[in-house]
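Can't paste images in this forum, so I'm doing it all in text. The chain is below; anyone willing to post the predicted structure tokens underneath?
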Amino acid sequence: MKVRKLIESFNAAIDGIIYSVRTQKNMRIHFFIAIAVLFFSLFFDLSKSELMILFLSITLVIVAEMINTAIENTIDMFANYYHPLAKIAKNVAAGAVLVSAINAVLVGYLIFFDNLVPMANMVVNKVKQSPPHITFITFALVMLIVIAIKAYFGEGTPLKGGMPSGHSAIAFSFATMITMLTADTLIATMSYIMALLVAQTRLEAKVHSVYEVVAGAILGVFITILIFQLFR
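Text version of the structure:
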């Protein structure tokens, strides 16, 4: 009987995680980033301490988002009307998620920065030898490929709706070009932050899904890197 109750409790906990991922857009984003970070960590020689901090940071973000979801649902259940205290509770819970996410970004920066700098410098030095007109050709190709894919899926317009996100593809393409044409890590970081903000606006406006935005970002980065590598 105790074993059965333990299994039921375990299944209930799994159901809670699945519900959060299925219903919460931010949770899906957190899961995607966590999977990507853990995958790329395989290519770096991280110490046990670094891995421990990485796992703790990822866990903290996911737990904070789940608690935020639980708080929001509880408030909505008891207060189906506007109340200033309900708003404060939701904002505080969302703030906890934001703090944990910022902490995760800082941890990732501190862990991966030393490993990424030599690799990034090597790529930047090679690409800086590329002809200037390559940037314009890259932009045109990204646009044409986005339009072609949208036409294939028969959804949206070049810059509104459908698979993939045109805004996301262009933003990440520009961020990648800036990264490759400058040797300044700060400028490159800010460029990708701006690209992420562009992608976030598409999600907030509900013009695109997470998958469409991610597909656009990957497309923009991949095409840009490929062209610069081929014609450098």
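The chain has a mean pLDDT of 78. The two ends are 68 Å apart (CA to CA).
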